[in-house]
Amino acid sequence: MSQNQNIEIEFKNILTKEEYAALLAHFHIKEEDLFEQENHYFDTSNFALKANHSALRIRQKNGEYELTLKQPHPDGLLETNKVLSKEESDTIFRTGKIKDEQISRLLEKMNIDPAAILYFGSLRTVRAEKTIGNGLLVLDHSFYLKKEDYELEYEVSNREEGEIYFTELLSTLKIPVRKTKNKVRRFYEEKYKQK
């Protein structure tokens, strides 16, 4: 059980299908460069994590499973990660119960009862990644709750440099800057609408 914490700094912009195609072409990304991952989201019935601007998910990628709690942090998002076995993941999907001490303690600090956590559903993403400048450029095509969308993300360790590159890229490709909510927020809002 390896566990770690890191700060995530990323810029994101929702894209049209045409802008997504233009970015794939601009960076010479081919069909075989794309890979798939699935995020499984959790919250309480009254969306307590969402209210705390936090998110809890299990990411399934290349046959591996990782549990992640994302919480607000002055520099971006604090991520607490834990690698799970397939059996542990299957148990969590079946019961909705996450029995991890560190995650449970962090939930309790937010006044959220770990036993109140429920499994909400999944979001599937077809992803392309390219290391550019001092960061990782990510192009995502996501499918969730009968919806699909396209998104550009740029993950960096230096906020100022990252912002300059990201803004220049959008401007070069004449893509308007759009206020973009993260995937879990888009997933939750769609889920909330469908309640």
Description:
This protein is of the alpha+beta class. It has a single domain (3-189), classed as Hypothetical Protein Pfu-838710-001 (Beta Barrel), CATH 2.40.320. Helices cover 30% and strands 43% of the residues. The protein contains 6 helices and 8 strands; from the N terminus they run E-H-E-H-E-E-E-H-H-E-E-E-H-H. Strands 1-5-4-3-2-6-7-8 form an 8-stranded antiparallel β-barrel, surrounded by 4 helices. The relative contact order is 0.22. The mean pLDDT is 91.
Q: Name the average pLDDT.
A: 91
Radius of gyration: 17 Å
**Number of β-strand runs:** 8
Biggest sheet: strands side by side, in what order?
1-5-4-3-2-6-7-8
How many distinct domains?
1
Name the helix and strand elements from N-terminus to C-terminus, one letter apiece: EHEHEEEHHEEEHH
Helix content: 25-40%
Number of helices: 6
Helix-and-strand structural type = alpha+beta
Q: What's the story with the biggest beta sheet?
A: 8 strands, antiparallel, barrel
The CATH C-level class name: Mainly Beta
Global outline? globular
CATH superfamily: Hypothetical Protein Pfu-838710-001
Amino- and carboxy-terminal Cα gap: 35 Å
Uncertain residue ranges: none
**What percent of residues are in strands?**
35-45%
The CATH topology is what?
Hypothetical Protein Pfu-838710-001
CATH A-level architecture: Beta Barrel
